[in-house]
Each structure stands twice: as C-alpha cells, then as structure tokens.
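Major facilitator superfamily (MFS) profile domain-containing protein
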Amino acid sequence: MDTEPKESSDLLKARNTVETNGKLKSEDLKDPPDGGVRAYSVMVASFLTNGLFFGVINSYSVIYTVLENHLKNEGISNSESRAALVGALTMGTTFFLSPLSGVLTGVLGIRLTAVLGGTIATAALLLSSFFVYNVGVLYFTYGIMYGLGASFAYTPSLAILGHYFKKHLGLVNGVVTVGSSIFTVIMPPLMEYMILHHGLDWLLRLLAVFTLGTAVCGFIFKPAPSMVTKASREDDSWKSLLKSIVNIQIWKNKKYRFWALSMPVALFGYFVPYVHIKKFIENNFVDVNTNLPLQCIAVTSGLGRLIFGFLADKPGVDRILLQQISFYVIGVLTIILPFVNKFGILVAIALGMGIFDGAFIALIGPIAFELCGGAYAAQAIGCMLGLAAAPLSVGPPIAGYIYSINKSYTLPFVLAGISPLVGATLMFAIRLQRVPSNEESINTNGIAVRPVSVRIEKSPSLLLSNGDANQQTNL
C-alpha cells in the first residue's frame, strides 16, 4: 500500500551511526534551509496561528466578566466558577490533546492537521455564537471543541519550524510565540467594543472569521523537501506506523520524567490571573483601565520570549535553571498581587509577570531538545503539555469557587502563586540524576543531546532504536 510522504524533522546535524545488513556506516541528516521566502512565510503563518488562538484564549477575562454577570443576574449559584470553567476548558483541552495532535501530525501530516484544527475551531466559535449564555453548551463548543481545534493547529505551527530553521531555532520560536502576546494586547479592547456595540454573539462570529485565517495559514505548512522521506511498501503497516508515532523512550529518561511531572504542578495556578485579574481590578480599583494589566503581561511576555529564546540558543546556558527562576518570580508576584492597593504597583507587577511568563514558555522547546534530543522532542513536549492540561483547567474554577465563598481574591491568588514555587523546587530533582558515562553529549547550537544509535531494516525511512520504530519530529 502506497502512502503519502511522512515528515521527518530531526534538527540535529550530528552524524548517526546506522546499521544496514550488519554493516555500520555514517549518515548525515540534511539541514533545514534556514531561510528563504518559503521559510519566512512559514514563520509568519506560525506567528499568526499562535497569535489568533492564544490572543483569544488569553483574553477570556473579557468574556468571563459578561458571562459571570449574566449568570449572577439569573440567580445561578457558583456563577464565578461556572463562568471560569468555560475558558479553563479551552486552555486545558488545547494542552491535553497535544499528544493526540502530535500523533495526527505523524499520520495526516503537518499541513492537513493544521487545516483541520483551524476548521474545527472556526466551527466551534460559530456554534458558540448561537448559545452565548447557555453555559452547558459553551462547555462543549467554546471549551472542548475550540480547544480541540486550537490543539490540532498549535502543535503543527511549532513543529513545522524545525523543517525550515536550525541555527536560530530558539529565536524563531520566540518570534512565533510573540504572536500570542501581540494579539493579547489587541484583542481585549476589540472584544469589549464588539460586546458593547454588537453583543457577545456577534463577537464570537467575528472571532470565527479571524480563526478561519488559521486554516488558511495551515496550507502554508508544507514540509521542506529535505525533511521528507517516504516509507517503503514492506514497512507500511499499522503496527509499524503506531510504533513510529508513539514511543515510550522519553519516559525511560529520568531527567525528562522529573521535568514533565514538575511542570503540571508549576502550572496549576498559571491561568488564574488571566481569567480573574479583570474582576479583581473591578472589585478593588475605580476609574482605571481594567484591561491594562493584562495587556502589560502580554507585551512583556513577548519581550521575554524574544530575550530568553535568544539566550536558549547560547552554548552553556542552563535552561532548566532559567525556567526555575521564572517560576519562582511568577509565584512570588502572584502571591503579592492581592495585597496591592495602588494601581501603578499592580501594573508594575503585571510587567514583571509578563517577562518571566515569556521566559518559561520560550524555554519549553529547548529544554525538551536538551533532555530528549531532536528525535523525541515533539512527543516530549506534547506529553508534558498533556499532563499539564488538568491542572490548567481546574485552577481557575477552583479560584472562582474560593472567591464565591470568601468574596476575596486573596486566598485564590496566594494558592495560585504557591504552585509555581513548588513546581520549580521539584525541578531540583533533575540535577540529582546522573548521566551514564558511556553517553557522550553532542552540542548543537548550545543544545546538548545524546547520540542515538539506530538500525535500519528494509527502509531507511523508519529508524529503529532498541527495536522500536520511531518517527523523527520536532517542535
């Protein structure tokens, strides 16, 4: 059975030891083009995809305020937690389905998966516009369905970068993820204007039109010719396909295990300020721009992504330590937040939170490369985000529930700030894990990876490591 070409995006130039019919030889992996019109078109499309999706997700506090007020006026109990759950489900579903998105990328290809994601998300927003105050329906349409589409488009938008960039991959990742920061600045005032003059239903329809653009961007995600291989007839079976896209190698890496299990703890309270900060400001300040702190977080988060994306490309940089520092700062500032009684100080805290928010996001990809190598980076990131989905989803509703009991955001924000402190502390366990002395490190643009011995049988397109087939894809 003939198949479509599969994407292979190993970013490591290191020469792999390849065994063919019992004879060892070296094989050079082709480099990504690292520039050109096509490469920069892909970067812009990825930028827009990240911006459109996370601009909407991060600005949910605008919709939350309207929805929560409506539920309260209807006399519905726990209106805060019910309204918060809609947006939290979106973020949680986006991350929870990242592993599935990675699998679909291996089966359908990067381009088709991204187009499918954009189409599903567009349909979700369009359906939501007809049920704007029906929370039960919004849980599915705006929460799960839109999150599903965002996940299917988000993972390919990052994975495709490895097909076109290598030397400055960290910086390019930073540029692309700045899209969400820029759109988070633009979206809140636009969303408020639409709600005020046209209603929540027409806002969702406008967002559906914007989101359709992500499906168009998906068509640009064509894998680079140098990164495409074609499987042979003999190896093309469902069993070998499953092995090529799902593997357990990353979980044999103790350092990765500690990192992947620490991140969900650190991210438990991450989305709480994004959802509740607007309501917090309305309760504690008068005659101020309630969107300004969220916009400040977005602006400096973009700056942080660029700065720390650039640093991640530098040899000798301790990326895990930088991410720990980021979580410590975010945690402390979140704890301080409810005790601030001057709006100027609140804005300053938001600026600081944004810088280190961008830092931890920009470091996710380079850390995955460092711990797992290029062959496993995409699935390593997908699995970590999948584990983080539940904490991300339950954090804001729990904060809303605590607020509904105490009528104060002090305890919710303090608890939200403690979780990144605990997660960052758990990451010290990574440093206690010893690397076997027989494993040499290869440094590629500052990313230390272990050389992988692979064996090829029948077809050079499927690489076998320790007997398991493995598709090479990267974020």
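thats it. Strands lie at 6-7, 16-20, 23-27, 228-229, 442-444, 447-449, 454-455, 463-465, 468-470. Residues 169-198 form the longest helix (30 residues). bye
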